[in-house]
Structures are given as structure tokens and as C-alpha cells.
């Protein structure tokens, strides 16, 4: 029988961490984080890293294991996660993975698309253009070169924009033309559990989380990172808005409202991404954790019979 990776997905602030810990304890196993924002040790409050008690409740991997100065790609994560899973599956029949970064989840569960190598100078030029002209220039260019991919991504993520643009410019072909090609099968089976809720509930949970982050010291954390604000890792919701306050461009109340708005937009994109997987078992976030087990146990039995 193949080993089973239970992947817990869903929008930000919906309760993925608590569900993953419950499942890890039930199956007496460990957790792999596929939340790319939580990789960086300098970013704790703004990325909602699991609390000390949550980390003690179940063993976690890929939490704050990198620095914002490290160049750590989704391809690096795929390789590292597969190596670790090979080790973990020697001890466990089931491993839990949790995270809302759809591309990173897919990297482990399905594999990444293969892209041709392009001249490194293209990326260097795009990064220079980002610094001098701003992200809007890159957004407009990608929309022109590959509108199909542009309409599916977080257009405020400069790393994604630059990655797609360097392929478009280096090959003369749309980035999207390299996507969804056949990939090697995994040596484990995947059961994806998606947490869902009414949009109004998700948005209210997001608003509450942002307020809690501010109380916990998110502004102070952003101030400590302001000198490094141009790093790719910091081009993310929660930090870039506060950087605009710190440099005097915005009022604090407006910056906080923008964090909430941009996080809500991000959650909407997460739903869109995860809904594309037709095999996902969707469960309401308010369902008792013990009730989730019936659904999961049934699906695991189906996987065992494949």
C-alpha cells in the first residue's frame, strides 16, 4: 500500500493549523508546512506562524527554517519536501501537510512544470526595473505577453511576475504554454482536505486576525525589517502596507485597512486556486474536528483499495 499525504488547504485565517495539528495527533504523525511566507525566521507575526504551544503540540517542518536573505524557490521546496517525505514515510503511514500557498502545495502533490533555462541577465534587468519603475510596469508587460497566466496569479507578487516574464522574454513563448504538462507520478497517495466557510465569515476572521497581529506587535516587526524592504520575501501583504506608513506615504489606519483588503483579495484567489482540484474533500470550518475523521477515514479506505 502506498503511503498517504493528507494535504490541508483553504484560505488564510480559516483554521488550517488547528485542523492539521488535530489530524497529526490522531494519526500520530508529523506536519509539513507548505506556507511559503512562514519559511522565514525574521517574519513571525505578519505570517501567522504557529504559536509556541501549537508547535509543541505536533512536530512541524519547514517553519522559519530560512532567512529572508536566502534565495529559496518553490523548486527548492519541492526537492527538500520530497527528500523529507521519503524519510518520514519510513516511520509513518500518514503525513500531514498544511498551507495556503497553492503553488507550493502543488509542487509536492503534483510536481512542478518544467521550464527551459533562460539568460540570468533577463531576471537581473527585471529586478532592476522593479526597483526603479515599480511593479505596475511589470504587471502591464505580463498582461500583454501572457494574459492567460496574468489573470490567474497574484499580480502584486513581484517574484511570480518576474518568473513569468523571464520565461516569456527568454523563450518568446507565453509562460502559460509550459504549464500543465505530464509530470512524474508520486510514490505516495494524496488526500486533499479543504476547509471552507461563507465568504463573510472568512472576511471577518481575516479582519480579526489583522487586528490581533497589530496588537501582537506587527508594526514593530515591520519597523525592524524596513531597511530590507526591497527583498523579495518582504513583498507581501502585511509588510508592504506598513512600509508605506513607515516611510510617511500613508496614515496608519489606512495601512491597516489596506492589509485587511489585500488579505481578503488573497483569500479569494486562494479559493479560486484550490477549487480547481476536483478531488478535494471540502469540509466546513465549523464542523467538529472529530466529525472530520469519518470523512477522512472513508477516503483513506478508498485510497487503500486503489
Automatic annotation (TrEMBL):
Alphabetized GO MF terms: ATP binding; tRNA dimethylallyltransferase activity
Cofactor: Mg(2+)
Region entry Interaction with substrate tRNA, spans: 35-38
Catalytic reaction annotation: adenosine(37) in tRNA + dimethylallyl diphosphate = N(6)-dimethylallyladenosine(37) in tRNA + diphosphate
Cited InterPro entries: Dimethylallyltransferase, IPT, P-loop_NTPase
Gene3D superfamilies: 1.10.20.140, P-loop containing nucleotide triphosphate hydrolases
Protein residues bound to ATP: 10-17
SUPFAM superfamilies in alphabetical order: P-loop containing nucleoside triphosphate hydrolases
Single GO BP term: tRNA modification
Highest taxon in the source lineage: Bacteria
EC number: 2.5.1.75
Entry binding sites for substrate: 12-17
Keywords: ATP-binding, Magnesium, Nucleotide-binding, Transferase, tRNA processing
Site feature: Interaction with substrate tRNA: 101, 123
Subunit structure and binding partners: Monomer.
Stated role: Catalyzes the transfer of a dimethylallyl group onto the adenine at position 37 in tRNAs that read codons beginning with uridine, leading to the formation of N6-(dimethylallyl)adenosine (i(6)A).
Family affiliation: Belongs to the IPP transferase family.
Name of the protein in question: tRNA dimethylallyltransferase
Lineage of origin: Bacteria, Pseudomonadati, Bacteroidota, Flavobacteriia, Flavobacteriales
